[in-house]
Specification:
The complex is a heterodimer of chains A (190) and B (301). By secondary structure, chain A is an all-alpha fold. Chain A is 48% helix and 0% strand. Chain A has helices spanning 20-27, 43-47, 58-67, 70-74, 78-81, 87-91, 98-111, 120-135, 140-151, 155-158, 160-168. The longest helix of chain A is centred in the C-terminal third of the chain and has 16 residues, at 120-135. Chain B has 301 residues and is α/β, with parallel strands linked by helices. Chain B has 14 helices and seven strands. In chain B, the strands form two sheets. A four-stranded parallel sheet of chain B has the order 2-1-3-4. Chain B has a three-stranded parallel sheet with strand order 5-6-7. In chain B, helix 1 (18-30) packs parallel to helix 13 and helix 6 (124-132) crosses helix 8 (173-180). The chains are: A mainly alpha (190), B alpha/beta (301).
Chain lengths: 190, 301
């Protein structure tokens, strides 16, 4: 299949649009200290099981982040496709905790509402967060249901088979467990 | 004398991973290891909570560590790989970042809980390997294995980045423990490749593709089943095989079990007590194992 060139999609980044101060702030966060030591070797993208589905890939995200291209990074699907498997982090020759950089970027994307809208992954994370804050424990059923209602309720129809299998084998808990004492957690970042 | 451990099952072991909870309890009882469940434990936060709010994520997970310190039953055992990683990560960050340590300290104090005292977080597989030892596992294994060799699948969170006793990319503890129990295994290069975690729920096409690769390679290697150490890996590999059959047109049907189920079975436990009836894929294969072993046991009597 021939690749169709899309001229409306700008691929050149201009230095004047970058915000080096933001990059510096990112690098000051716990776990992100070694951001500027990246060699752009690509070990992270090579080992990432999800890089082929990403809009940028881990190497480019690290490259964009350290130059200060805030909007591109926070608006990307890449940071959310990261499944937190730590393969990049253990392979990085510069010991950059790439997984923790991704977490930091996810949190800022949520705080500043820059994540792709109706994208299921950040919505799932938010619903997980809400259920755990309310009950102290998570419920797979409740979190998936709430995610589907906020993104695309039709997706529930594609889940009936695995749902039924789980119900039949006693693995689907419809009611959520609640702690005797739900810990009070001060909201810091959100 | 039985050895005592604090036990943190985690949320998955109350839902989709209930067979993991059942089989770990049965296996530990067989080996005279006592599990004391933490009172009123909470969610570890997994990967999702940390994606929204870091400060309270560490307090949330530290609460379980503090409860374990208070319970004084010794090391904290958690079978779920995600819980294992998050608890270890919390200890690591509290140790290295004073600002996080202060936040966690204040959070625990507000809950009337004692400060963290460095309780050791451990996984049941590592306890079998180091505390029980291969010799005792060999002695305790009474049922001979008649099925095909198994593929040991570790996934990511248990071995990366906080694995303190096995290799990060090519771990071997599971193979060694199964071998001691007389169960053969296959060479399996994808043993630490990620299953995609919750991607099967959020972007099914991508999540299922990752699982298809892991399943397909195990079948190609002639494995009779896949053995896992993580409730999410087990769920992903087990529950979506019908969907994967439909999308790929390939006849994929292979049991996906927990290492604790396979070992408990080798040590003579009742399959129901190990939650083996809760498997979704490869039901026929599992039934054949049971029938073969029952015939053999009857012949011996």
């Amino acid at each position: 299949m021939a690749t169709k060139l899309n001229f409306s999609e700008r691929t050149i980044k201009f230095q004047r649009e970058a915000d080096p101060e933001w990059a510096r702030q990112v690098s000051e966060h716990p776990g992100c200290e070694r951001l500027f030591s990246c060699l752009q070797c690509g070990s992270c993208t090579g080992t990432c099981p999800l890089s082929i589905y990403m809009d940028y890939g881990p190497r480019r995200i690290i490259g964009l982040a350290r130059e200060g291209f805030r909007k591109e990074v926070l608006n990307s699907q890449t940071i959310w496709l990261c499944a937190s498997c730590y393969s990049c982090a253990v392979h990085c020759p510069q010991q950059i905790h790439i997984t923790d950089v991704m977490y930091n970027l996810k949190r800022e994307a949520v705080r500043s509402h820059l994540y792709p809208k109706r994208f299921a992954i950040p919505v799932l994370a938010q619903e997980f967060y809400n259920v755990v804050r309310r009950n102290g424990r998570t419920s797979e059923f409740l979190v998936v249901l709430r995610m589907a209602l906020r993104t695309n309720p039709l997706v529930l129809f594609t889940m009936w088979r695995s749902g039924l299998d789980l119900l039949r084998t006693g693995r689907l808990k419809l009611l959520s467990e609640k702690l005797k004492h739900v810990p009070f957690l001060p909201k810091e970042d959100a | 004398m039985p050895q005592d451990y604090s036990y943190f099952p985690g949320c998955s072991l109350r839902g989709t991973g209930v067979a993991y909870d059942e089989s770990v309890r049965a296996l530990f009882a067989l080996l005279d290891l006592k599990l004391h469940e933490l009172p009123d434990w909470n969610c570890c936060g997994a990967t999702s909570y940390m994606s929204i709010d870091e400060g309270s994520a560490f307090v949330l997970s530290a609460r379980n560590l503090s409860l374990a310190g208070q319970a004084k039953h010794g090391d904290l055992v958690t079978p779920c790989s995600a819980c294992f990683l998050v608890l270890k990560k919390t200890q690591d960050y509290v140790e290295h970042y004073p600002a996080i340590a202060t936040k966690v300290q204040q959070g625990l104090q507000a809950e009337g809980l004692p400060p963290l005292n460095g309780v050791r977080v451990r996984h049941p597989l590592e306890i079998l390997y180091n505390d029980v030892g291969l010799d005792r596992i060999k002695q305790a294994s009474v049922r001979p294995w008649r099925g095909a060799p198994l593929a040991c699948y570790y996934g990511c969170q248990l071995v990366r980045p906080y694995c303190d006793s096995d290799e990060q990319q090519t771990p071997t503890h599971m193979e060694e423990v199964l071998k001691a129990a007389g169960i053969p295994t296959v060479e399996y290069a994808l043993k630490t490749k990620c299953c995609g975690g919750s991607l099967t729920g959020t972007i099914p096409a991508v999540g299922q593709r990752l699982n298809y690769i892991i399943l397909k390679e195990a079948i190609r290697k002639g494995a009779g089943a896949i053995v896992t150490v993580c409730p999410l890996c087990q769920y992903n590999l087990d529950a979506y095989q019908a969907d994967i059959r439909k999308s790929t047109g390939e006849a994929i049907d292979i049991p996906v079990l927990y290492f604790s189920q396979v070992l408990g079975w080798a040590m003579g436990a009742d399959p129901k007590a190990l939650g083996m009836q809760r498997s979704i894929a490869g039901k026929k294969t599992i039934k054949q194992w049971f029938a073969a072993s029952e015939r053999e046991e009857k012949a011996h009597v």
